[in-house]
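A note from the maintainers: we've had questions about how concatenated examples are separated. There is no special marker in the raw files; a new sequence line simply starts the next protein. For clarity in this README we add a label.
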Amino acid sequence: MDEVIRIAVVGTGDVAMDHAATLTAPSPVAAEIVAAADTDRTRLDAFLTEHRTSAGYDDLDELLVRSRPDLVYLCTPPGLHRDQALACLRSGASVLVEKPPALSLREFDEIATAVSGPPWFATVFQHRFGQGQANLKALAGSELLGRPLLAVCHTTWFRDQAYFDVPWRGRWETEGGGPTMGLGIHQMDMMLDLLGDWTEVRAVTRTQARRTETEDVSLAHVTFAGGAVASVVNSALSPRQESYLRYDFEYATVEVSHLYGYRDEDWRVTPVPGHDDVLAAWKAGMTGAGQDPAAQNSRSGHWAQFARVLSSLRDGAPPPVPLAESRRTLSLVAAIYASAATDRPVRPSDLSPGTPFYDSMAGHRGRSA
């Protein structure tokens, strides 16, 4: 690969405006935005001006032919992800896609089948890459914390009716779900990154206050292969907004409370009396030589993941967040919808090819495009 990684941004709305600059921020690997595409010319022109790029397109295929990017950053609505990702991969460009990676497990598997080496496909799950998460994973892999017993994973945010009135939002065929899919997926991915495979889900969803085809609230009980159980809440109706994760291990409780990205000071560790070594190990991990160099300012955020993605592309290696782990997170979303719709517990085998909720998060309620 060339010394400078060539990046194209597809979809130039708020997400791209907020995060695309981090792709070219100072990091161990040089990168430049060489092209962008959007069907809204006003929005595209604003992006091109902001990022000093002249190559703007209203057609992805034309962009791929003319600009030949190494990496395409997809910031488009979820209903477009599968087809756009496949077009990029077939052209030889790797893909970095904002969540959710696809509308369904079927669509995700279609993408995964197209990946057999470079080019690669990765999902933006930036909360995996802050120092607090890295420190917790390291301690959980030792014997200091003991077994994980109980977890709480709450994404309680507020989105007004205007949010759902955007044409592609709150619809099974274009967004794939409500706040379970579009908001809580980041915290759920962070939980799965620590606790591993889930084995059973019992859930309810409700449309409590918004005019939307999907839910605006979901609640789930999740059981993990390692024996832990978790309470998961996803809400678009909560005026006091919070992203909250809590893990009760045998010897300590570890918590993080934030909104869209955590800092070191957002974490709290409460050891069982007589286990002060846990607190000492936590502090050493947050400040010591083992700190992740990609955790810029110790925050979770796009920069830390993007830096790792660029380094992987330079080295010809798969980018972080393996396909199997991204799929596991999407499968938990599907299980919540399946359990709520069928009013019964759901296991991974209930989401196998040929089942309704493999094909669509809506299951029997509809079918995604």
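[label: protein 2]
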Amino acid sequence: MTIQVREYALLTCDNSVSGTMDLGIISPQTFDWLMALQERWGNSVQLLNREGTQFLRLGSYVGYLESPSGESIEILPKTQIEITDKPEPLRQVLRRMLQVSAGISPRQASAAALQRSHQPLHEWIFSEFLCHMVELVRRGLRFDYHLTEDNDSAFIRGQLDINRQVRQPPGRGTRFHVRYDEFTPQRIENRLLRTALDSVLKLTKDSQNWRMANTLSHQLSDIQPVTEPLLKIKSWSESKYLFAYRTIKPWCQLILEKMNPDFQKGLSRGISLLFPMDKLFEKWVGHSLANALHPGFSLAMQSKEHYLLTHTPVSNNPATESWFMLRPDFFIKAKPTSFVLDAKWKLLDARQANSSDKYGISQSDLYQMYAYGHKYLTGKGQMMLIYPCNPFFDVPLPPFHFDKNLTLWCVPFDVELGQLVRGEWELKFACLTNGFMSTEVYTV
């Protein structure tokens, strides 16, 4: 059974309540498994006690979990304040963000792709990996030369090891110690693909995925898997000879890096495929901004040009140090205009425009933008906080003024279309208006 919930949902074992997208009913075995992993997960799971009942609150992570008992939990993005009973749009949004974050090129829609669109996230990743793998095998795997040593060869090939050969015992004079280069498919890229394929074959529960993985496993039976794939994946070559491997590499990385986390060892072993939603949203917004920029403007993500302050410690060899690096999500610069933008995965509510709620904007975020404005814009210019669009925040808010020279805009971002909502801010951010409404269409 698969339980579908949203970010920050509560999980409980109490069967007397009705399950929703914000309240999942799980078995005691799954509850205990999550409890055992709570310390290693950090903020992704939090234990709560309400009226004598224990709850687990999920954090801002999305993806898929499967406990050792076989119970599955699909965690989807929370794009609306109100509870939704339609998980498919949330799943589509998550897939688009994941494609951009992992650098995956979208595939054209087909009958098979549409059929896979209703799969859970992990099965969809398996399907895409297997489809790319089938195409790669059809086109032919790349081989490479590998040095092979043979201490019992019946004939001489390659280079004869003279030192070992002269020490042969009596009766083995017809056996040779040789070294030679063998042209084999045992290159690291193929071995990593075989390792990922073995994981898919073991973890998938989809019949079509299993059949494809089983067929490919027989076709690649001569290739040896890698024992430590997370260390070896850095050796993946990007040469032109492996151009056909570039489309499958992101899928292989997702399976090898996300399906084998360190905390799933021993008796607590399960399946985990979790992604931080704030990072996915940041990548999604950055992709949109890069496509919308005017020529002549450059976009820097996580800029590291300025620090909050400098300090000279008291010592025999005093040297000025820079403390507390300021890293805005996006820094758009060109002469003579520059802009600072920051993406926040948080649902604002325009109905809460009173002195206490302030739309739900965090005071610390405003302090952060104030520091960005003075360091990156020298206290003069335009800045923007970008929040996900929802029914209660679907138009930009009126501008906020730190002073007469420094202005902040809060603008909603349509996560389904992948674009900022248009408004008065465009008069100040003219570099983002050219071709802004023509976004790339993703088909999954």
